[in-house]
Amino acid sequence: MDQYVIKGGIPLNGKVEIGGAKNAALPILAAAVMTDETVVIDNLPNVRDINVLLQAIQEIGAKVERTGEHSVKINGSFIHDISVDNEFIKKIRASYYLLGALLGKYKKAEVALPGGCDIGSRPIDLHQKGFRALGAEVEIRGGLISVKAENLRGSHIYLDKVSVGATINIMMAAAMAEGKTVIENAAKEPHVVDVANFLNCMGANIRGAGTDVIRIEGVEKLHKTEYSIIPDQIEAGTFMFAAAATRGDVTVLNVIPKHLEATTAKLLEVGCRVEEGDDYVRVVAPEQLKHTQVTTLPYPGFPTDMQPQMGVVLGISQGISTITESIFENRFRYVDELTKMGAAIKVESNIAIISGVHRYTGARVSAPDLRAGAALVIAGLSAEGITVVDDIFYIERGYEALEKKFMALGARIERVSSEKEIQKFKLKIS
After folding, report:
1. Active-site residues (predicted)?
2. pLDDT at 236 > cutoff 80
């Protein structure tokens, strides 16, 4: 199993380019099969979740052609199977997007129940509610969720809770339903807007994405398009917090600053200087960071996917900070690992009380999930001594060439696959 080995204590300096948003790319790839014409998608992140979904799409008959490291052509006219159940698809949460896409196009679908990181309950009851409102029968059996309908008809759907997955899934199915659909209390995340824009480029009629009411006029068929995925706000935020934690000076390129406002606000509160341009953000960290309070909320609030990275920064900030996690109940699983590095954090229910320490010290830690894994890498970069991060396959689900991007900013980090290589790294930097 591969690991990252890190010699910390070096301020990050320089420029880093951000890739396409994984959370937008996954539903967009699923939606690409909704036409029988060829769709071209670029600015695609080359990460494990993307490759698993492309493999699943290929296995049901769609033609998938990688035209470059970050681009793909998909033609859904060859699909011969609406049952998606390979061993890999169960490992990614985004598998459920194939339900909305295939239901919209073929009026039936069967997909293995989703996996992903164990950060808490991610029920699919709102997805089921939406599909039923459109006229589909929904059944769960043998680890599969099955949906089918004689006809899909537009409906007025109120989501009891803001859900990105349910908003996108219902939007995809409704794009090819008869009549009008209104989704109220819809998620407003940038990747919801990106999926709506993509579907509209294919001929869908979707208005209001980015607000809490989305209106969809169903169309009979969709057509080919070429589309570029938005930059990844979570990858961008990860590098912004890494700049803060290492007391560095990092310019993050290829971003949409508007998507990063909640992250930027917290960096300003802890004392960083943040400069924004049309497509970049620069973070300059002071020698001493200040404490603050954070509550995770749906967009445009502070993202739950940035919470562990924020926790790492607050762990080495002066004074007592608090983080209230209001989205997922298992999002503090990184705290035990961070404590091994000297953090002073107490978790009570969904609140972490963080007493800032002067610095972290290197230790051997394990990534419990994708974002927590990235946060532990940041802790290692800021720590005194050597840190080894195990289980980096979680991190590679959503970050492309993370260690190479950090190395380009001056970090001493390597991806290794044995104890011997870890020892070699230690000898090299001693």
Report:
1. 117
2. yes
Encoding tokens for residue 354? 């963080």
Residue 22 predicted with pLDDT over 50 = yes
403 or 91, which is more confident: 403
Residue 114 dihedral angles phi and psi, to the nearest 5°:
-75, 155
Question: Is 161 marked as a binding-site residue?
Answer: yes
Q: How confident is the model at residue 116 (pLDDT cuts 50, 70, 90)?
A: low
| 37/309 Cα distance (integer angstroms) | 41
23 appears as a binding residue in the annotation? yes
The CA dihedral of 107, 111, 116, 122, to the nearest 10 degrees, is: 60
Residue 385 DSSP label: S
119 pLDDT more than 70: no
124 is in an annotated binding site: yes
What is the per-residue pLDDT for 429? Answer: 87
Q: Is 122 assigned a ligand-binding role in the annotation?
A: yes
Specify the residue for token string 């002073």: 344
Question: Residue 242 and residue 255: Cα distance in Å, rounded?
Answer: 16
* Alpha carbon distance 303, 260 (integer Å): 10
Count other Cβ atoms within 10 Å, centred on residue 418: 11
> What's the N-to-C CA distance of the chain in angstroms?
25
Which region, left, alpha or beta, applies to residue 14 given φ > 0 means left and ψ of -120 to 50 means alpha? left
Of the candidates 253, 213, 244, 308, which has an alpha carbon nearest to the alpha carbon of residue 19? 253
The dihedral sign for the CA sequence 295, 301, 304, 310: negative
Q: Is 126 annotated as a binding residue?
A: yes
- Residues with a known catalytic role: 117
The closest alpha carbon to 109, from 117, 118, 101, 121, belongs to: 101
% residues pLDDT > 90 (the chain): 91
Answer for the pair 118, 193: CB distance below 8 angstroms, yes or no: no
If you ran DSSP here, which 8-state letter would residue 203 be given?
T
Please indicate if the annotation marks 282 as binding a ligand.
Answer: no
* Spatial distance between the Cα atoms of 51 and 39, rounded to a whole number of angstroms: 17
Buried residues in 314-330 as b, exposed as e (16+ CB within 10 A) = bbbbeeebebebbbbee
CA–CA dist 17, 281 (Å, integer) = 11
3-class DSSP state of 375: helix
pLDDT above 90 (res 413): yes
Per-residue pLDDT, 117: 59
Question: pLDDT band for position 303 (50/70/90)?
Answer: very high
The residue type of 11 is P
Amino acid at 379: A
